[in-house]
């Protein structure tokens, strides 16, 4: 185990090693206990291993852990410097040390009225000024006070952005669809560089009634800039002069100069800040389309829900701290049981984009192998996160979960009260959620299969012939998270819960959760490959300098077969 130490929050290596080794020993002694046995040993297991906070119930009783495991996990969290790191996160410390900045997303939803400082300056006045600007803009858009150049009402907002500048707002628009205001514009998203997405997105739109939000912290992400340029030309076809075209664009960015150079009007720029990491930016002006759609007050409720979860994370003892518990359970599986993948399974149509949102949050934050002390890790960091809305997943990949050879962990997320009146659907949906967690845990042994099939009247000889096919090993762990109702407040809390879980994991795994150098190499290579592709298409000799034969072969095949549109 390589030591974990940070330039920003030092950790006592010997304490950390001692806590890790104690957990390792405990794991070796208990790893073969089955979940069924753990439940048989403790009739109060559900009460002992579930926690409630602010409309959430987290049941983690279906996990391979005991009270002693929890104690050892939390000892490890303390030894990793979690409490100091947490303090840094909330007070503007330079926790994103490879970029020499803070990760101050908590400031965006700081509803306490207290200042939060970065670089000796309170960031709250600016944060609140942008919120006020979002409110005015969205209200004017909906009322029709803000019109297009031809005086027509804006009916569609197209949000152009990718990664963290896309996944959060997209997930929120879907999650809060029941809160859509009657006079709200339609909101569409344009993320992919694929022209098919642009064409599909704009096919039935009228440029005179369309507004584009160019959402990019850097204002240099090629996907976003190319889509924005195409959008500009698309509006220009209907609107004659550049100044009028500009009235169809706003930007959300930390790079004001680049936005203005692009043609965005200065007053149409909604600032974000260097201290804000893209995948944690949903509570900023990145959610301008969300505010246009559901209104300002519900958006503030989402911030309040996130703030409540932030405070819970900051102030609650680790034993009852939801993000800490979820994170430490994931550390147990990731680093001791060697489980590679984690599923996020919302039993909710409105949360169907939550797995994709969280996939970026954990994998881009913690998918790293260089530790804070620049050594290479000898332990696993982020798991592979995937998922799907629950019942759809059941009819797709759940077969592998139930009878495949892989280990996995899973979060089942259910809503107690839906926004619709269709009780029959809802009862069935939630029954499915609970049934899957039980089936995964209990499994079904040969005796149970035999007796079930005999009762169903099957020929005993046939039963014996197929018996092994019908056995489920079970013993698969899962968490179940129940949310009273998916209000904006609850959604804010849910997002913050997972964000803070990710933060805790990063501290334990010893990585900087707030940079993403791993995405740079591909971005760099694309430039050379693009140049070579253009040379080949123009019939020029491309030098292929140092490029590997597979890529050269693919480029040549593409150039030979590409037929320019007439
Ligand atoms: O994929 C890398 C990344 O930098 C993400 O972290 C970020 O969310 C996304 O690209 C978009 O970046 P930007 O907001 O600067 O366009």
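^ Assign residues to that structure.
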């Amino acid at each position: 185990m390589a030591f974990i130490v940070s330039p920003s929050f030092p950790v006592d290596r010997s304490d950390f090693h001692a806590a890790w080794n104690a957990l390792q020993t405990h794991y070796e002694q208990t790893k073969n206990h089955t979940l069924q046995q753990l439940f048989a040993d403790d009739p109060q297991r559900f009460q002992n291993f579930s926690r409630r906070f602010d409309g959430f119930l987290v049941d983690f009783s279906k996990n391979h852990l005991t009270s002693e495991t929890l104690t050892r996990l939390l000892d490890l969290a303390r030894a990793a410097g979690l409490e100091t790191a947490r303090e840094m996160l909330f007070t503007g410390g330079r926790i994103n040390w490879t970029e020499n900045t803070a990760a101050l997303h908590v400031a965006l939803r700081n509803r306490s009225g207290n200042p939060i400082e970065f670089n000796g300056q309170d960031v709250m006045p600016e944060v609140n000024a942008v919120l006020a600007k979002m409110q005015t803009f969205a209200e004017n858009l909906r009322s029709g006070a803000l019109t297009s150049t031809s005086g027509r009402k804006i009916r569609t907002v197209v949000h152009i952005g990718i990664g963290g500048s896309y996944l959060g707002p997209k997930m929120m628009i879907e999650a809060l669809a029941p809160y859509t205001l009657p006079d709200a514009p339609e909101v569409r998203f344009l993320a992919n560089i694929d022209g098919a997405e642009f064409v599909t997105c704009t096919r039935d739109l009228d440029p005179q009634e369309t507004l584009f939000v160019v959402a990019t912290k850097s204002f240099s992400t090629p996907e976003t800039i190319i889509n924005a340029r195409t959008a500009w030309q698309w509006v220009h076809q209907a609107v004659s002069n550049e100044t009028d075209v500009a009235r169809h664009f706003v930007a959300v960015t930390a790079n004001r100069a680049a936005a203005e150079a692009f043609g965005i009007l200065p007053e149409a720029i909604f600032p974000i800040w260097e201290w804000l990491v893209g995948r944690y930016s949903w509570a900023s002006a990145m959610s301008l389309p969300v505010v246009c759609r559901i209104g300002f007050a519900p958006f503030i409720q989402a911030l309040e829900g996130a703030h409540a979860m932030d405070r819970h994370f900051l102030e609650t003892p680790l034993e009852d701290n939801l993000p800490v518990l979820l994170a430490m359970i994931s550390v147990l599986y990731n680093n001791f049981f060697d489980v590679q993948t984690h599923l996020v399974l919302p039993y909710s149509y409105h949360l169907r984009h939550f797995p994709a949102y969280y996939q970026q949050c954990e994998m881009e934050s913690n998918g790293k192998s260089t530790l804070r002390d620049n050594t290479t890790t000898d332990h696993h960091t982020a798991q592979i996160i995937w998922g799907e809305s629950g019942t759809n997943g059941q009819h797709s990949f759940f077969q592998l979960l139930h009878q495949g050879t892989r280990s996995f962990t899973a979060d089942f997320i259910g809503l107690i009260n839906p926004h619709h009146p269709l009780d029959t659907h809802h009862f069935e949906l939630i029954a499915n959620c609970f049934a899957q967690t039980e089936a995964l845990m209990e499994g079904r042994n040969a005796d149970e299969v035999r007796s079930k099939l005999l009762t169903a009247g099957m020929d005993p000889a046939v039963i014996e012939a197929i018996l092994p096919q019908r056995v489920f090993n079970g013993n698969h762990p899962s968490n179940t998270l129940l949310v009273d109702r998916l209000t904006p407040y609850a959604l804010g809390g849910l997002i913050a819960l997972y964000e803070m879980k990710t933060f805790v994991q990063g501290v334990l795994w010893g990585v900087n959760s707030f940079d993403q150098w791993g995405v740079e190499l591909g971005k760099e290579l694309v430039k050379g490959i693009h140049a070579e592709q253009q040379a080949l298409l123009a019939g020029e000799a491309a030098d292929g300098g140092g490029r590997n034969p597979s890529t050269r072969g693919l480029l040549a095949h593409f150039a030979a077969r590409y037929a320019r549109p007439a």
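The first strand starts at residue 50 and ends at 53.
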